[in-house]
């Protein structure tokens, strides 16, 4: 079994190849070609932590993956990062372990950011006049970096609750070449951007229907578990195109679940991302529609990114 | 994160300490103090393989464990062992990975064999006149080895379907000091032994009620998944004491499930192993009772054996 560190993984991977592997994975998932056992969750109450184990295999492919990811939210006070994790790649022909990817959670972050790029490529309006980001953390940064490949727009409005975090994000985005406006008023994001990504762990709606410009696309990646919400249900209900990574999962949590439970939208109007990417369903039809993508994260992304990371590391580091 | 090989793990562990850790684990499990998320299963049809991921945390303890175990039944033809696997131990305080135990399935085998020793210690008749083993594989060997610590009886009857495998087992058991009878007729095991362990992947009953001597204790470890069965339902129904490692799991599969579904026994008569080990329930009451233990394997065993293996390796190999 090969063992690769985060540094080795980051150095070996090419983002456009990784994105294509994710596209293939979403399509296989929506075609019912992926074995996805139930997610395992732990709650470590006293330590303010949690862990989830996600596993997947695309039927017929050579490898399957088991991912362990942890979040311990008191870690920063101990000088440790909140998130950690690793992925194991095993042979689907013999069961033997092939690679341990000690990515410390990076592969989960990048597969989520690339999914944001993938849905924006499919759903964003033709002319992007401004990018809006809600949140200032690692995912807020990675989403912005991955959007740069699909648009030359360098106007950014970023929302956060914390002034210092906003200033730090401004420095980051400026260094990427963005003209940056920071704000603690989410309405300003909606007023200045028609491509918005929400990346927060919020438990109450941050964006309201009335603020959104016609033609805007919104990708929501923050609500990855029960109780989380970033978008007002009326905004969800008014979106003309709603894409989700997994209908089965988004029924249970994520932005969509709230509107579904209140009867404001019907399951039949949901489009699974894999159908859209396979060209089996139409997405945006004009520049006036509001489109929405709700990404809760599916294990097939982990399987695809891990398989590619292993391959990329083996090619970049043949001596290991 | 420390990485330990099977050889290092086998060399570092003391079986009596490991057994005590399992006892503690069974008790914690039966007291409802263990988080056990649903088992993840994969089926690799074409490759004739499967994989299961079992995870557990005893609430309040310092570590939790994720175990991956695989069985690929065409592997021997490729010169590879059928079973492989590893366990990961992570901190329940910070989420950081602590150890990767590359045990290749050995820890699962030994925790199962030790569970056999533990139930035999609790339920076997006072005088063991003969030991019987059904099966000739790895688990059949490890069960016998672990029983040696609790009885001086060295009379063994072993059943198998394959003559060569029986002869190989005879050689193994003779080297341990046993007087060995091999047979392809399971009735002979029942006639000559009052402590029997069944270790096969059989899908039909191998032992019948009429053959069993009064006072016999039977431990069944083979039926670890749907469709498997080693004991006739009438034998199960007539046992005066029935102990299971997990009532919840044994309702779904294992020996007990068949008799339960046919209404031959009631769930109320089942004794969970942790209650017995904690002294909260009586087990065998006299030397005439037939007692039965159905062990389907619970993830708390993995958590306990992995935590101990990591500790033992750290003590035995401080320089690593």
The radius of gyration of chain A is: 19 Å
Helix content class of chain A: 25-40%
Distance between the termini of chain A: 10 Å
Q: Which chains share the greatest interface?
A: A-B, 41 and 41 residues
Question: What does the main sheet of chain A amount to?
Answer: 8 strands, parallel
Q: What oligomerization state is this entry in?
A: homodimer
Mind sketching the topology for me?
2 copies of one chain form a homodimer.
Chain A lengths: L1 E4 H7 L2 H16 L3 E2 L4 E5 L4 E10 L4 E10 L10 E9 L5 E6 L3 H18 L7 E4 L3 H10 L7 E5 L3 H13 L3 E5 L2 H7 L2 E4 L4 E5 L9 E4 L8 E3 L1 H6 L2 E4 L2 H4 L4 H7 L8 E3 H5 L13 E4 L4 H18 L4
Parallel strand pairs in A: 1-7, 8-9, 8-11, 9-10, 11-13, 12-14, 13-17, 15-16, 15-17
Antiparallel strand pairs in A: 2-4, 3-4, 4-5, 5-6, 6-7
Helix pairs in contact in A: 1-11, 2-3, 2-11, 3-4, 3-11
InterPro entries (chains A, B): NAD(P)-bd_dom_sf, ODC_Mu_crystall, ODC_N
Protein name (chains A, B): Ornithine cyclodeaminase family protein
Organism (chains A, B): Rouxiella chamberiensis
Please characterize this protein's 3D structure.
- Chains A, B: InterPro entries: NAD(P)-bd_dom_sf, ODC_Mu_crystall, ODC_N.
- Chains A, B: It comes from Rouxiella chamberiensis.
- Two copies of one chain form a homodimer.
- Chain A has 320 residues and is α/β, with parallel strands linked by helices.
- Chain A is 35% helix and 27% strand.
- Chain A is built from eleven helices and 17 strands.
- Chain A has helices at 6-12, 15-30, 106-123, 138-147, 163-175, 186-192, 233-238, 247-250, 255-261, 273-277, 299-316, and strands at 2-5, 34-35, 40-44, 49-58, 63-72, 83-91, 97-102, 131-134, 155-159, 179-183, 195-198, 203-207, 217-220, 229-231, 241-244, 270-272, 291-294.
- In chain A, the strands form three sheets. Chain A has an eight-stranded parallel β-sheet, with helices on both faces. In chain A, strands 1, 2, 3, 4, 5, 6 and 7 form a seven-stranded mixed β-sheet that branches.
- In chain A, strand 4 and strand 5 form a beta hairpin.
- The longest helix of chain A has 18 residues, at 106-123.
- The radius of gyration of chain A is 19 Å and the shape is globular.
- The model of chain A has no long low-confidence stretch (mean pLDDT 96).
- Chains A and B meet through strand 3, strand 4, strand 5, strand 6 and strand 7 of A and strand 3, strand 4, strand 5, strand 6 and strand 7 of B.
